[in-house]
From TrEMBL:
Superkingdom, taxonomy of origin: Eukaryota
Keyword Transcription regulation: no
Protein's recorded name: Apple domain-containing protein
Domain Apple, chain residue ranges per copy: 826-903, 1032-1113
PROSITE patterns in UniProt: EF_HAND_1 (PS00018), PAN (PS50948)
The entry's keywords: Membrane, Signal, Transmembrane, Transmembrane helix
Presence of keyword Membrane: yes
Pfam family, one: PAN_1
Signal sequence range: 1-28
Annotated TM spans: 1218-1240
Species this chain originates from: Octopus bimaculoides
Amino acid sequence: MMFKVNEKGIKMLHTILIGCLTLTQVLGQLSEPMNDDKQIFDRDIFKNAFQSIVEINDENGKFSILEYEYNDPDNKRDAIIQFADKNTSRIIQYKDFKQVLFISDGKRQCKVSGISPINGTYPFGEINLSNKKFIYRSSSVMKLLANSRMFSSGKNIIRGIPVKTFVANIEWQSTKFKLTMNFAANEWINIGGVAGSPIRFTLEQTGVKQGLNHTYEYHSFFKSIQDNSETVFESPKGIVCPGRKSNMSLPDLPPTFSASIELTSDSQVKIIDVSYSKPDQLLRIDYQPGGNEDSPHPEFVNTISEIYDYNAGIRYLRNHVLGNCSTSKIKNSSLADEKQMLGEAPYEGYLIRSIMQSFIQKKDFEYVGLRTIRNIDCFVFAAHKKQFMLEDGSPESATCEIYLSSNDWTVLPDKSGQATVNYPVMVNLDTADISYQLSFIDFSGQQKETDVSSCYEASKKMHISILLSGNYIKSTKEVIETLGKAMIRKLLSIDALQIQNVQLSYDANLMYLYASILDNTPEGTKSQGSTLRTAFQTLSSAIAQREFIFTVSVGNIKAEYIGLHVRLDAGKLYKAKLPNFDDNFRYQSEIVTPSKNNIELVKIFYDRSKNLSRFDVNQNHCANLCSGPSDVIQDFTRGVSYVIDKFNGSCQIQPLFQAFDVSQSRMESGAQLFYFDKTYKYVGQQHVRGMLTNIFESYVASFQNNLFRFYFLDEGWSGSPFSVPVKLEIVSDGSNFYRTDNYFEFLDDILMSAFDISSCYRENNKITDLQITFKGAYKLRSVNFIIAAVNKIIDFTHLPLINIQNPELSYDEDKTYFRFSLIDPSPQPIELFTVKSNLKPNPNLKAKTQLKIQTPNECASSCIKNNCKAFTYCKGRKVCQLFTESPTNNQDSDDCNIYTKTKEQKSNSLSSDQVLRDLNSLIHSGTFEISFTVDTEQHFTAVSMLSNIDRSNSKSVSSVQNMKMFTKLSKSGTLKSSGPFFKQVSVDDCANLCINNEMLNCEAFTYCYLKGICFLSDIHPNDTNVQPMDACNIFQRNYANMFDQIPGKTFPMKGNVLSVIVQSADVCAKSCIDKGLKSCQSFEYCPSKEMCTLSSRHVMDVPSTDIITTEICNLYTVSPLQHFVHSTTKMEKLNSNLLVKNISLKACAKLCMEDEGYGCISFNYCPVTSICQITGANQKTINIEANIVANCSHYIRLDPPSPVASKMIEKSGNKGKLITLGFGTFIIGCLLGLITIFLIHKNACTVKDDPMKVNFYKLDKI
């Protein structure tokens, strides 16, 4: 119903609504008491709470009004909802506030008026309906009875309901009326369960024609409020009543909070994350731009973060997918400091900022009542907002409703803190064209961590770690991080956003608090000078003075934490210098290529002074010039590459080639990565693997303009004469290439053995083994003597270092022996050629000659002899093709390479014979003198030289075998108590020193890679004697590795048996070794019982039927091969001492170990024919067929027996007794042999072959 309230009508309406008397008051003023018949209706029926549907008919005005009437005296409020003329109107009265609301739902309008005192003057309300006045409220009708008499007029039937009728004649301002009231009879119970409910009231004006005639029809009368009070006594959703009185105001939000908001609009739903801190003046909004189906990254929930720092006046915009960040300035005064069209992308941040501004400013928000949302009772506040705009720029009005949980509801804390009261549940924002609903979910009083460190370049941030005192208390990690962050902020007086990524790290002994400190200006703004440096100095000073201190309370426990030390993990506080490198260095590189899911370890050696380089690579790095993992040694003086196979030791000599891939380019030298120029710039510091590093980066043109970012050890950590590289990152923007090289053991000393090419020349007999004898015994460190001797030879002969191989030193009582191998210095044919790998000539190009040749070097020799210009070598088919001209229009090949002649052979090259003659002359002249200092000045003079010596009996132990005898502990560290130490040694040298140390029962050693220092120890590592230390590792003796393990097997322990209780198989193995080979050759260890049983029997001596299965024990037997080293010497002859057939390699080694008669010092084994041949000190040599020898290997005993027995026989003067004894022994042996043969033939059909059986043969039977 459309209505208009004028000034006069408002005054009348105020009186009617507030001043009207209830029915009880009217009846109390009747001049004449009613009889019992008149007491049929309830006197308090309109005084108490009720609701009813009332149809009001105006006979003269010819119209009807339908209204819902409500009375709520307990809450001092009443209401009428009228339906007329296709409109809904509401009149709501609040007696406490003496205020009435006139609401038009259709017009979305509300007017507020006050209420006048009772004056009894205006009983009629006025509405704009034919200018007729009528009464529209039940209590107003009853007011007319105040000065009138009421009479019962009997019973009637109305609408089929029996009623009692009462009539009253009333007069008001000289106008007379007749009021007829019909109440249901007592026996009639209406739909609301009420007896005596009002049925119909009639009000007629008397004495005039066509006077006022109103009828009131009552339906569904209830004695309580049945409808939802929220829809009855409050303004409808979206309607604001300006000026409305209330004892409620918009509450404050918690000072810090975070929440997820479900934003619904235009059939679209998305989640927005919000975090706010009032003390820090920070607001963070995370959202997905556009709809999920329109987003470039729909797989992510939120990809954009808007971060507003109102203290600094900076807005950060981060894209989490692309990783970029931009900054802009904002005004400090307002959260929403500009107008924006609703729905204009990106609108999410502006929408949230507008709502946050509403909470903070609270301007124009009025309380509109209590409503239920998501079954939560909510206080509702509403206001009209005009901070939005239309397309033409004019302001657009929007109604904003905020739903806050009522006082009876709380949000329980999810982690810590207090429960939240009056938390936001929902916000509605409605305009004429668009509507938004924002539902708050996951509301928490905790602020979300805000990370803007990616918006700052490296020079404007630093990463620190603070060592804290005390021990960690369980479940206090977040509390310590919060208090630690607050302490840093307090000491440095910086904004909250300048402290990032605060994290606590702890173990049983140490606690570190990590944090990132940002400059107060982001990238793209002018720097504030040494802000970070000052901050670090301030924090360091405060920690030194014990000002960094806070207390954590957990129950009755209080823990005090003090900052002990602060360390710079990364940052640009000081400008470092571009590093310089020594002429010599070596390192290990762990190459990580994520795009290939590949990790590779490469060793690189470089000696600039000697023009040598070495790469230990796999086949992928040297194309088909390698047949597998190889050591590529490059001699830049001669232009030759030596490719040595790691598995079989074979060697190929190639022209100098680029042996190593880096960022889609290839390197010839290990130093090419470290050629620095002025394009490298210093970008800051960072801790890598626990080490502080200085970072330099540049786009390197020689490597396809890729970005090279080096991390060099800081000077305070190095202790080295040059900067040690720790890591290299290679980034290619164009091809999305990324690689990381992690460097280990970067040292400036190179052992001579690093460039061992002797295997490349020994096969061709182009190597000479020499021994130079010096007067006097040198018993100190051999490396000093060797270096002095080698330098003397190089200075005199002008040979390259690479021509002197495998130097070693020994001594006796009065002499020192220097042995080495001399490489033939004459040029190799391949030196005259350059190579193009993975190519073959066009098939149409005919070769001059085609040969079947083993190596490229032999092919080069043939090319020189035939005066050709180029050749092709295919390693798979071993085919060499010679060409008169260099091939063109070549094709790709996985097997072939093209070699082109680029140099001419020199005629005056040096030869091995000439070198030997020169050295002999020098020695015989007495001028071969060397001097060096070890503690004191040392002087030695060479007295003689031998050539073509036999170096096969060398006792040098394989480095690999040494390391197998040790186990590296998983954590870096060093032993608290150590014995002797050695400098400038390799890790395998350290193992050798531990094994062969006669003064110390060495159980473990510590090796520190950066310094090359070796510490020996006679204690076994455990949890109490190990202390952490970066770049050092502990290696403990692993005695069990010297045995062959047979899991789940055992045999009856007979003979010399000893059982003990030990903690591990390794301790059991040591017990066996200590007993000696004759007393212990096997042991059984049962882990569950910790039982160790030693036995003098070897498993090879036990019949296979005696070896049984067990579930709790393992069998260990001495590995005979542990006592031998495999020789790479090519065999040409076999020896006749003892030859055994049908025997395994280990059984052959065992036979040599147990042999006493021949004095076994080595053995030869042929796996194809299973032939084992034992060689002793006095051996007779015969020729064997070449096809047998070709597949045989030679093994040298590391601990050969002393030839004492044979010497005693030779010195004995009683030769006759010895001959008689020998002849007698021979006769007895023959008799025993005949008996054995007879027994074997007798039982030949019943005895099965024993797999452990050894067959002996005469040499001429093979």
